[in-house]
Amino acid sequence: MNQADAGGVSRRKPARSVLRESCGSSTMDGVQHHESWKSAGLGSSCCGGFVSSKVAKSGGVDDQKEGIINRVFYEGSRKAGSGSRRYSLVTYKELPEYMKDNEYIIRHYRANWPLREAFFSLFRWHNETLNVWTHLVGFLVFVVLTMANLVEVPQVADLLGLFTRPNSTIADTNVSYNSEELLLAKSLIDLKNITMGQESMRLMAVPLPAAPLPAATTRWPFFVFLGGSMFCLLSSSTCHLFCCHSHHLNLLLLRMDYVGITIMIITSFFPPIYYIFQCDPHWQLIYLGGITAMGVFTIATLLSPALSTGKFRAFRAMLFSSMGFFGIVPAVHACVVNWSNPQRPITLAYESVMAMSYLTGTAFYVVRVPERWRPGWFDLAGHSHQIFHVFVIMGALAHYGATLVFLEWRDKTGCGN
């Protein structure tokens, strides 16, 4: 009896050691996939199925003890892996339904990751890495452009001048004192010509009338565009980085991403319409009010969770494109009004590059090429959404160049010139 018991114990120890190896091989970098085990007929735990088969053969454990061992080993392996686990990448088939968006990208997905792991995946290689970094780099570029232009704003320049103004004031005071002493010495030496000297000094001191400079054009429409671009790019990067956390956060971030795209389109209209029609405020109101109303309608429509799915990809692209095509009307109007303006060909070139960039990127977004042609080949780099991001950056930079031309033209001409 004792020998049999001893034999049973000796047989169960190797089973448990083999069990740990089996559990380790049944994980993907520490993440358990219970549904896969259930479909394979292994019950709720791979470890449980292994213990059942091995211990049943040894004949030393009944059903109740077997269930206890299953739960102990499963909970122990789960807790041991939770502290130092490296979350694995999964395939499209293993994704939860709410994350299935592009069936032509097959591997390297993140699913149900904690926020901390999702954040540090910024430095890991997965199929969202370039989606995050393309717009994150674009955001940083626009931050630099915004800071560079803020330095040239008169109010900011005056603020910076406070650090150097005291030194220049002291220098001017010293110069004035030296000038007064010099004039006093000359008056004492040449008393006979004091009247003529004073008259000549008075004439020399009268400043010549300076040519009036045109008032600098207001910059707020320009910074509205820069702010809208930064918000869009940052919300896009945030969405792609943290959308793998949970269903609730995924929906929230997708809505924020769509709002960011809409805001970028709206704010892109502000600089050209404001500066071109600066002398016709009623046209400013009509065009800016029209695009803002379209943007509000687009945001209200896209806040529906059902419209955030991949099924409505073409519908979302249609809404965004319709906002862009609205710009054809003020563009034609501006060309007619400013046909003789020498800056017209330059601005048209910039804006044409912007329009072609946005339309080309949208086409890639809808058609989903090249991954449609070779599923699995472009999972990490080169798929349609990454290309779409690059074209968005190109379009925004082209519009930035056109806005600088508008500003320079308005600063020189003003209204009525």
Outline the fold blueprint.
Elements: H1 2-25, H2 34-39, H3 46-58, H4 63-84, H5 115-120, H6 129-150, H7 154-161, H8 165-189, H9 194-205, H10 220-242, H11 247-276, H12 281-302, H13 313-325, H14 328-337, H15 344-367, H16 384-413
Describe the protein.
One of its GO terms (cellular component) is membrane. It is found in: Membrane. Keywords: Membrane, Metal-binding, Transmembrane, Transmembrane helix, Zinc. The protein has 16 helices and no strands. With 417 residues, the chain is mostly helical. It folds into three domains: 85 residues, no CATH class; 228 residues, Rhopdopsin 7-helix transmembrane proteins (Up-down Bundle); 36 residues. It is elongated and about 65 Å long. The N terminus is likely disordered.
